[in-house]
Amino acid sequence: MHLKATDNSVGLRLDVWLASRVHELSRSRIQALIKSGQITVAGKTVRPHTKVVKGMEVDVDVPPPTEPRELIPENIPIEVLHEDSDLIVVNKPAGLVVHPAVGHFSGTLVNALVYHCRDLAGIGGEMRPGLVHRLDKDTTGALVVAKNELTMKKLANQFKKRTVHKEYLAIVHGVPKPAAGRIETLIGRSAHDRKKMSVKPASKGRIAISRYEVVERFKHASLVRVTLETGRTHQIRVHMAHIGHPVVGDRQYGESPRHLNLSVEVARQMLHAELLSFLHPGQHKRVEFRAPLPEDMKRLLDELKMN
């Protein structure tokens, strides 16, 4: 790809200017290509902060994506809610870690998607899917993943601007009063346990906003719908515990469900990402996807209705 700078580009950083011209590449990807010598000016290597001058001629050579390091395709069953050439929306089951990390280098959703998706265009120079949001290991529901860099860039921008609409269903202890409300706090790492998040963080936290409404009341529990305005780690679990109604089965932030006198086992937090809506980057229209309620939450709701 050969580009030539015009008058209105003079003085900009090279990486900033290229990001505005080559939409399918993120700025970080452009910086990596500059540093690896894949982007040159008049045949010479440059730096990302090089200033654009009038008439500057830039060559961009994007190599084909390579096989991802330490990422093994695995034939793990996944429920696909929607798939096209730009993205895939899945209904993540409980117990499935989304992304490889220390202790989970295999058996993740990403491993499953590398196997399932035969048309990945590459993210960051590697043949892998692009994660723009995540769900906790034991949270179920709708999750969108990008297949190419441009889609990932556009979806990430929507999440950043809070234009993605996300609704969750949770079974919580007790019945919140009022029946509908808005929770706004800071959320950050707990001062007492670094594995937990807290509304009283060890250092400066980030604004977290959740809106909830009671959908159905039971004797000692309720089904609530939670709409997220922000997307902080463990946000719903922390917020519901903060107002005194932790998610049933949440052993990290909640309490034992023994007082509910249940005959069914509660093996995880009863939290499900039911609805996901966003502007489709390729189709340029608003799309909406719903993930059906998992069987363990259905069984628990049936028992709560009988108690």
User: What's the total number of strands?
Assistant: 15
Strand content: 25-35%
Text of the CATH class of the largest domain: Alpha Beta
> Tell me, what's the shape?
elongated
CATH architectural type of the largest domain = 2-Layer Sandwich
Which percent range fits the helix content? Answer: 10-25%
Number of helical segments with 4 or more residues:
6
Measured between the Cα atoms of the first and last residue, the distance is 67 Å
- Uncertain runs are none
What is the rounded Rg?
Answer: 23 Å
| The CATH fourth-level homologous superfamily of the largest domain | Pseudouridine synthase
Q: Could you please say which CATH topology of the largest domain applies here?
A: Pseudouridine synthase
What's the structural domain tally? 3
What's the helix-strand series?
EHHEEEEEHEEHEEEEEHEEH
Largest sheet: 11 strands, mixed
